[in-house]
Amino acid sequence: MIMSEIILKGRLNGIQRNRLKSLFDMLYTPRELAEEIGINIDQVYGVYVPLGCPHEREEKNNHLLINGKAFFDWYRKVYVNIHLKQDETFCKTCRSPVKIHRLKKRIKGSLVYILSVCPNCGRKLTKILSEHRGER
Q1: What is the DSSP string of 50-116?
Q2: Does domain 88-131 have CATH number 1.10.3470?
Q3: What is the pLDDT of residue 2?
């Protein structure tokens, strides 16, 4: 499956992605899957099923069932990691990496970051360069 556009809706945070790895090769109901991952059940029905996550229906009562390992593999294929070059940042409006334009470097405590503007839509963008936690 090759996606022409980067999908942002339904992306999981780091803790939730790590929980995906612990899913078993068994059938989960959407509620069980949501509880295991740490998401809302509406995300399963409203985002993942319409995007084509692997699922099956019980013949008896038409309930939705999702295999944990198949869901994990599907998620990794659909939600690929976004790799940015040194001179790029990600614009959520354009949904694509863009070149850094009108750069302003900022330092706040131990956080070093840059502010820029998307050359396509004009949105303000931030890119963190370095952070030294616990050091002074």
Answers
A1: HHT---EE-TTT--EEEEHHHHHHHHHHHSPPP---TTEEEETTTTEEEE--S-EEEEETTEEEEEE
A2: no
A3: 40
